[in-house]
Design brief:
Number of strands: 7
Oligomer: single chain
CATH class of the largest domain: Alpha Beta
Distance between the termini: 45 Å
CATH superfamily of the largest domain: P-loop containing nucleotide triphosphate hydrolases
Strand order of the largest sheet: 2-3-4-1-5
C-alpha cells in the first residue's frame, strides 16, 4: 500500500492491521527511527524486549534468508505478538521480502528501516503494491510541517511561544527529526519547570549554537551573492556534521519562498503584501535581507537556481563524486549567478 501524505501521521499512531510488513524509508534518518519506534510500541511495550523483539541487519539476510521467516513466524515465549525490525535495509532484500509476503505472519509485525529509496526502487515498489505491506516515506520536513511539530511538542510540554519565536525555531533548527527533537528538548530543559512562556531570546539563547545561524548565513550569502561567506559557512556546516540533504532542502526552501513571493508581486501584489502570504512568515530580523533579494532577483533567475538545485540532487545520486565536493561547487556557482 502507498500512503498519501495526509494519511501518514494517522497511520503511524494507529497502523492498519492489514499491514504485516511496514517499510519506513527516506533521507530523514531521525524520523525513520522515531516512526519505527512509535509503530513498534503498538506491538510491544519494550523495544528492547529480548523475547518479543528481534533485530536483523539487512545485509545479514543475504547470507541467511531463512532468518526473516524464522523470526517472523516464531511464537512469543511470554505470550503476545512479536516485532521483527530489519535495519539498514536495501533493494538487495527485495526477493526475500517478496517471498515472505506470500505468506506473512497474521500476528507478528515486520518493520523494515531503509534510507532514501527512489520511485523505481524494487523494495519500495514491492511495499507500495503489496496488500500486506505499506511504504511509509520520511522526508526532511518543510517549514509548515516543522512549525506544526514544534507547536505540538512545546504544547505537550505545557509551554507557549509567540509567532516570532515559532518562526525562528522552524527556520533555525531544521534538519532530521532527531536533531529537531534534541534541540526542542534542550530548549525545554533551559526554560525549566517554573516558566510557561518561551521568548525569542530564550529560543536563541538555547538553540542558536546548533548550527542554525550557520544555515541562515548560508542561504542568505548564497542568494545575496557573497561567495566567500557562502563557502566558509558551508565548510563550517560540513565540519559540524550537517547532512547534504539538510543543506539542499534549506536552499531549496529559501529559493522557493523567494519565487513564491516574486510570483505574487508579478501578479500585482506589493512587496509587503506578497511577503505576508508566506507561511511561516519571514523572521523579522531577516526581513531586510529577504526584501533586498526580492528586489534583486527576477523570476527567470530564480527558475535557473531552482533548476540548478534539482540538477545537484540528481548528480549526487548518480555520480561517484563525493556529495560534499559537488555541493561546494554548486554553492560557489549559485552565489556567482546574476540575480536579475
Amino acid at each position: 500500500m502507498k500512503l498519501q501524505f495526509r494519511d501518514i501521521e494517522p497511520f503511524v499512531k494507529n497502523p492498519n492491521k492489514a499491514a504485516r510488513v511496514i517499510l519506513i524509508y527516506g533521507p530523514d534518518h531521525g524520523l525513520v527511527k522515531e516512526r519505527s519506534a512509535i509503530i513498534g510500541k503498538t506491538v510491544v511495550q519494550d523495544l528492547n524486549d529480548p523475547f518479543n523483539v528481534a533485530v536483523i541487519e539487512g545485509d545479514s539476510l543475504l547470507d541467511d534468508p531463512a532468518k526473516l521467516f524464522d523470526e517472523a513466524k516464531a511464537l512469543s515465549m511470554m505470550g503476545g505478538d512479536r516485532l521483527v525490525r530489519i535495519e539498514g535495509a536495501s533493494d538487495k532484500i527485495t526477493k526475500i521480502l517478496q517471498d515472505y509476503l506470500a505468506d506473512p505472519s497474521p500476528e507478528n509485525l515486520v518493520i523494515v528501516q531503509a534510507g532514501e529509496l527512489g520511485p523505481r526502487s524494487p523494495l519500495r515498489v514491492l511495499c507500495e503494491k503489496d496488500k500486506a505491506a505499506v511504504a511509509l516515506p520520511c522526508y526532511v520536513e518543510d517549514a509548515r510541517d516543522l512549525t506544526r511539530f514544534i507547536r505540538e511538542s512545546l504544547a505537550t510540554a505545557g509551554l507557549n511561544a509567540d509567532r516570532d519565536t515559532i518562526t525562528w525555531l522552524s527556520e533555525n533548527i531544521s534538519g532530521d527529526r532527531l536533531k529537531v527533537r534534541s534541540e526542542l528538548d534542550k530548549l525545554i530543559t533551559y526554560i525549566g519547570p517554573n516558566q510557561k512562556n518561551i521568548s525569542l531570546e530564550d529560543a536563541i539563547e538555547a538553540c542558536a549554537a546548533a548550527g542554525a545561524q550557520n544555515l541562515d548565513d548560508l542561504v542568505y550569502s548564497v542568494a545575496g551573492g557573497n561567495s566567500d561567506l557562502a563557502l566558509k559557512t558551508y565548510n563550517t556546516l560540513i565540519s559540524e556534521g550537517t547532512s547534504f540533504i539538510t543543506i539542499l532542502r534549506v536552499l531549496q526552501n529559501h529559493y522557493r519562498r523567494l519565487h513564491m513571493t516574486k510570483s505574487h508581486m508579478a501578479d500585482g501584489a506589493s512587496l509587503e503584501i506578497a511577503m505576508k502570504k508566506l507561511a511561516p512568515p519571514v523572521f523579522f530580523k531577516q526581513a531586510p535581507a529577504f526584501k533586498s533579494q526580492l528586489n534583486n532577483w527576477s523570476l527567470e533567475g530564480l527558475d535557473k537556481v531552482m533548476d540548478r538545485l534539482t540538477d545537484l540532487e540528481v548528480q549526487c545520486k548518480r555520480t561517484g563524486m563525493p556529495t560534499e565536493t559537488l555541493c561546494a561547487q554548486a554553492i560557489l556557482s549559485m552565489s556567482r549567478m546574476r540575480a536579475a
